Amino acid sequence: MEAIQDYRRSLARSRWALTHADRPDTFQLCGSTWDLLPGVFAPVYSPTTGFSLRLLGLDDPRPGSRSGSLLEIGCGTGVIAVAGALAGHDRVVAVDINEAAVRNAELNAERHGVADRVRAVHSDLFDALPPGERFDTIFWHSNYVLAPADYQYASMHERGYVDPGYAAHRRFLAQAPQRLAPGGTVLLHFSARGELDTLRRIAAECGRALRPVRRAVFQEGAHAIEHLLVEVTTAAPPHPTGG
After folding, report:
1. Would you say 98 and 159 are in contact if contact means Cβ atoms under 8 Å apart?
2. Where are the alpha helices (DSSP H) in the chain?
3. The model's pTM
4. In angstroms, rounded to a whole number, what is the distance separating the alpha carbons of residues 44 and 174?
């Protein structure tokens, strides 16, 4: 297993970020101040939230540059959801399985003046959303490091770092396109820390196709890691064979 893909390394990073003695209650990102609650994925210790902003073109959100509705899966501190609202998304839903993250997203929506457009929901992926609710854009900065299928999380915080057996990815790939409004887009932030070939196989099993729409190499400590913004679509049915 390559060092950058070793789930044990990611779990160690999770423990360190969760228990760091100097863990702050606010942090700076893209020139703004953000609240950080205990137990929530901390962008101050991991640069990948900033990478998501750059891949999405939201690192400098210009009012009016976006429109329609946005669903962010695994919102953490709510940075992406808030940036989307600041850029013009008029209905933003930020969901997380971690209740502390839901409250954190609410705090940051209030801090940045978009609480009227951002709704935070405690949900395991799409489970707690109304069945008929649809979105123009669905985005997930996934926990792309693959852990063994039988791994049991030691804390809620670890869920932001690894996905045992890619079970959450399988559910996302199967369910996300069903939540789109007509003409909508499903986007997934993935990286070379994950196993793209495995993800492609799972996508095919779910009847989905993956199309990288943006790639960038970012420095993470001693490693230069490729990150991808991937569009998830419904795969075209195979052509019938004639006889």
Report:
1. yes
2. 7-19, 48-56, 79-87, 99-111, 167-175, 196-205
3. 0.95
4. 32
Say how many Å lie between the first and final Cα of the chain, rounded: 46
Residue 27: beta bridge partners? 34
Residue 243 is given by DSSP the state -
Amino acid letter, residue 131: P
Residue 132: count of CB within 10 angstroms of its CB: 6
Helix axes 99-111, 79-87, angle to 10 degrees: 30
Rounded to whole angstroms, how far apart are CA atoms 56 and 52? 6
243 pLDDT exceeds 50?
no
Q: 77-118 pLDDT, tens per residue?
A: 999 999 999 999 999 999 999 999 999 999 999 999 999 999
For the record, the structure tokens of 163 come out as 């996905």
What span, in angstroms and rounded, lies between the C-alpha atoms of 190 and 194? 7
Domain spans of the chain, in order of start: 3-234
Give the CATH fold of the 3-234 domain.
Rossmann fold (3.40.50)
In a 13 Å sphere around the CA of 221, the CA atoms on its Cβ side amount to: 5
Q: Rounded distance, CA 142 to CA 43, Å?
A: 14
Q: Are 105 and 84 in contact (CB under 8 A)?
A: no
Give the model confidence (pLDDT) of 112-148 as tens digits. Answer: 999 999 999 999 999 999 999 999 999 999 999 999 9
C-alpha 205/C-alpha 67 separation (Å) is 32
